[in-house]
Amino acid sequence: MLFQRRNPFHWTERLLIMLWPRRSFWRSAKYFAKRVLRLRATPHAIAAGVAAGVSISFLPTPGFHFLLAAVTAWCIGGNVVASAIGTAFGNPLTFPLIWGSTYEVGRFILYGRAIEDVRPIQLGSALRHLEFSQLWEPLLKPMTIGAIPIGLTFGIVFYFVTRWAVSKFHERRRLRFAARASPRTGKGDTHVPAQS
């Protein structure tokens, strides 16, 4: 391959880079922001796609975020590529905060107040025996219910911020192209008076 590494990464190095980028998280965030701004679509489509990806990141369905975000973006007229970029909101740094907040909000919505007699969830045993029913009621149901209002709130905020940023970027780019094109058109418009 033309752009393949001479010494490929070991699987442990790949896992470490997925959890902690080699450069920095800020550089990765700027990269994703530039990718969003440079998409070829309307500001609404890009913003709707990003909003769909961010909203879906709150659901307790890791591994299905890309697919769910793409379907959601398609349904609301958003850009599918922007929805994939929007799912980067859910990452190893934010997942503990996302899952904790969705669990607490969902438990409050379902039960109205703190429950005193909460039994501990035997997560290891349920995962080992793949007993989905034991995970749904105490853990996944509150997280799913809590993900709806929090995800919608973050999605709406990201929609308006992204739409504003994309509109400004497109306007600046249009003015820059117009400024480059005006000297060329100025040279071609020189009028030579006809000799009598």
Features:
196 residues; 8 helices; mainly alpha; 0% strand; globular
Weakly predicted, low-confidence segments = none
C-alpha Rg (nearest Å): 24 Å
Percent range for helical residues? 55-70%
Q: Please give the number of β-strands.
A: 0
Strand count, sense and closure of the main sheet?
A: none
String of helices and strands: HHHHHHHH
Structural class: mainly alpha
* Spatial shape: globular
Strand content: under 5%
Number of helices: 8
Description:
This protein is mostly helical and 196 residues long. It has a domain at 27-112 and 122-170. The chain contains eight helices and no strands. The protein has helices at residues 11-19, 25-37, 43-56, 65-75, 80-86, 95-111, 123-129, 132-188. The longest helix has 57 residues, at 132-188.
Structure in a nutshell:
This protein is mainly alpha-helical. The chain contains eight helices and no strands.
List the helices and strands and how they pair.
Layout: H1 11-19, H2 25-37, H3 43-56, H4 65-75, H5 80-86, H6 95-111, H7 123-129, H8 132-188
Helix pairs in contact: 3-4, 3-5, 3-8, 4-5, 6-8
